[in-house]
Design a protein that fits this description.
The chain is an all-alpha fold and 79 residues long. It has three helices and no strands.
């Protein structure tokens, strides 16, 4: 079996450890909300993604993408 290398940020690692504890039943969702500073709805969604995709489900989907409000200076401004 080929193992995949997954890189996580410090925040994502913290989130992963909390979500794993919730999945094992060692921590309640309400307590996870306080630990990772997210809403209960967000914690439930993270649990669903973790169950379906594993650790990769907790990686930010915005990684390596430009910000929404980033200004592109390479194009000339429209008159």
């Amino acid at each position: 079996m080929v193992e995949e290398l997954i890189s996580l940020s410090r925040k994502e690692l913290d989130k992963l450890s909390v979500i794993e504890r919730v999945e094992r039943g060692a921590l309640r969702q309400v307590d996870a909300v306080l630990l990772i500073n997210r809403s209960t709805r967000r914690v439930r969604r993270l649990l669903v993604r973790y169950r379906k995709q594993g650790e990769q489900g907790l990686i930010s989907r915005r990684r390596d993408k430009p910000r929404y409000c980033q200004i592109n200076f390479s194009k000339p401004a429209k008159p």
